[in-house]
Specification:
10 strands; alpha+beta
Length: 410
């Protein structure tokens, strides 16, 4: 201990009183040598932490991410070229590399304190970890991917026809790889817990919306509906952008009237916006759907399917602060989500290029390639259906939905 104290005392005198103890030339030489040693071992440490062995030495990575990677073409393929952990997750540029190392310290800390030290905990936080990497790839235009995959080096003629169409479009737009290719090396996180923050904006606006009995408003987000003013008995759910007539306001509750359509088969639980069109507006519990609380106002047969449809009316309760007097803001969010999510891989179809029932199948085939949460996906589908060819006089010209479809349906 005495020797250590003498060493620190000498170093203190060396750097605080250099002129009195040592010449300037010696001081510069010692500082240069010390800096060279520091830089050398700093780079040695950086390189050591870039090795795949270092990455998987943490059992969280070795037990969770490595087995997922080993099942993909990035681990083993016909060319024998394998992507290592740092190839994808460590930038090659020095400054970006240092920044990434600093960011990764959060993951190390999460391992130390036990936030992600089990499979269950890791899966709970997988979406957070994935979003950080997706944002980084998005910001640098997937630079790490392009070290191996470059648009200029691709032979599109050797691709499948369907792949050619997508990749040529992506090359034309210089699309970031991660926009289309998520989950190619590791499992995709559970997306159901996500929520589009744009809905929070709508809800904030709805809370300040003045509601008057007798007027028609629109639901701003999916919400439960109740049989009583105390909101104690839940009887179903209301979908976004569903028109409702407010009848009464009582405390934090609102009595509303639904005038919608249902197919007269089974329990008739799904209620639709328009006759003959599968535009879901509400889902009712089966016991309530066939109760005396439902009034059947009209019965009509769909000539195209032979199914009997009923126009039904019901008075139900919802929580206050969830309605807007216009769908304009709702459709703006839907339109933005559609354009941002569905134009990455190809030019998105014109909304009015298909009818409402066609959009159901088309959208189901596309949404799996996006990162939309369930609520956003339902909103976009309803937006596409309500702006489909059933609601415009010029199907390819776009437009806003009217009160009555413009097709030949009765």
């Amino acid at each position: 201990m005495k020797a250590i104290k003498r060493l620190f005392a000498w170093l203190y005198r060396l750097f605080t009183q250099p002129a009195a103890r040592i010449g300037m030339g010696v001081l510069v030489t010692v500082s240069f040598i010390a800096g060279a040693f520091f830089w050398h071992y700093f780079n040695v440490g950086m390189e050591a932490t870039n090795e795949e062995e270092f990455c998987i030495s943490c059992h969280t990575m070795g037990d969770n991410l490595l087995p997922e990677l080993q099942k993909t073409v990035h681990w083993q393929n016909r060319t024998g070229v394998r992507a290592r952990c740092p190839d994808c997750h460590v930038p090659h540029d020095f400054t970006d590399k240092v920044a990434r190392k600093m960011q990764a310290s959060r993951e190390v800390w999460a391992q130390i304190v036990g936030t992600i030290d089990t499979r269950e905990k890791f899966n709970e936080h997988r979406i957070v970890l994935a979003q950080r990497e997706w944002e980084r790839f998005k910001a640098n235009n997937s630079k790490e991917c392009r070290n191996c995959h470059d648009y200029n080096s691709m032979d599109f003629n050797k691709m499948r026809v369907t792949s050619q169409m997508v990749m040529r479009r992506a090359a034309e737009l210089n699309t970031s790889c991660v926009d289309c290719h998520k989950g190619i090396a590791h499992q995709l996180p559970e997306m159901k817990g996500l929520r589009n923050p744009a809905f929070d904006t709508l809800i904030t606006e709805a809370r300040t919306q003045s509601v008057s009995p007798g007027n028609t408003y629109y639901s701003v987000a999916p919400m439960p509906i109740y049989a009583d003013a105390g909101l104690g008995t839940e009887i179903g759910s209301l979908e976004v952008a569903t028109p409702v007539k407010v009848l009464q306001v009582e405390g934090d509750s609102q009595l509303i009237e639904l005038d919608l359509w249902r197919k007269n088969k089974g329990f008739g639980r799904v209620w639709y916006d328009t006759f003959g069109l599968n535009i879901t507006s509400a889902i009712i519990e089966k016991d309530y759907a066939r109760s005396d609380n439902i009034d059947v106002l009209e019965t009509r047969e769909d000539d195209m399917t032979g199914l009997e449809w009923q126009k039904v009316s019901a008075q139900v309760w919802i929580r206050q602060g969830a309605l807007l007097e216009s769908t304009e803001e709702i459709w703006n969010i839907a339109r933005t989500s559609y354009q941002n999510s569905c134009s990455t891989c190809h030019r998105q179809p014109v909304e009015s290029g298909h009818d409402a029932n066609q959009w159901t199948g088309l959208f189901a085939g596309m949404v799996g390639f996006t990162n939309m949460d369930d609520d956003t996906a339902d909103l976009v589908l309803k937006y596409l259906q309500m702006h489909s060819s059933d609601f415009v006089s010029n199907p390819l010209g776009g437009g806003s939905p009217e009160n009555t479809p413009q097709t030949a349906r009765p």
